[in-house]
Amino acid sequence: MNYTLHQLQVLVKVAELKSVTKASEALHLSQPAVSIQLKNLQENFEIPLIEVIGRQIYITEFGEEVVRSAQEILKQVNDINYKTHAYKGQLVGKLTISAVSTGKYVMPYFLGEFMNANQGIELKMHVTNRLKVLKSLENNEIDFALMTTIPKNLKIKKEPLMPNTLAWLSGTSYHSEEVDNIETLKSYPLIYREYGSATRRSMETFIKQNNFPSGKRLELTSNEAVKQATIAGLGVTLMSVVALKHELQNKVVKVVPVKGCPITNEWNLVWLKNKRLSPVADAYLKYVRKEKKRILEESFGWYLDFIKTIEKKN
Length: 314
Known about the structure:
With 314 residues, the protein is α/β, with parallel strands linked by helices. 44% of the residues lie in helices and 21% in strands.
């Protein structure tokens, strides 16, 4: 037998996701690299680990046994790593965070220094839609959630991180300077986020309050898709300014000045009220409370300045 821990990690991830493509993305490897690791691992066994029928991957009965053993081996290796860090007096363990999709423009800045200072911590951050974030929170599958709209059906605690400012946007070549009021805005096609998105809820509330007609609309399932559609001139949209640093700097989008905007709420770190935080989660919360003001000033100075600019225009 001559297999490696890396090969076992690849097998476990492929078995978990039932896909070489998804496993390669999760492991930050190319698809050929994952396939080669699986092939090299398979050479150690006479019995197949995986079967491919059509385009679907199936783990054989023997493969399932190997996967279970591999999971135990990898767990023991992680335990050794944790104990090594603990022996050195370092913080060890896992930190699990789920963030709504726009949160990918926020959360990394509140994690970088903490993770670099605590090499014994394993971070798992899921960036997904709001409904899945809420499900993870409700099922107590995560330490913290990052969101703007606080769920009313859950008993939670929160730590405000920074403002979340929403503004109406268009591509810079899409309209002239005359688009500066709600009546003019109503004549343009609207680009929506998917159902369940907090941004979509804010947009629908604004539309209802201002009696928009039910005209042309386009619904897209990601922030990036909405941005590209807006840049291309397919319509106007309501979006969080924090997601637009490069687009604003490169002047491929512009804020449409409209009465009643920008709309501002808060990014919050949220956790279940009765949750007993692990030492790692507790240490992270203390870090956030101590450093959030500095992080906001150092990493989001452009954002705070831009907010002030558009608030003056409206």
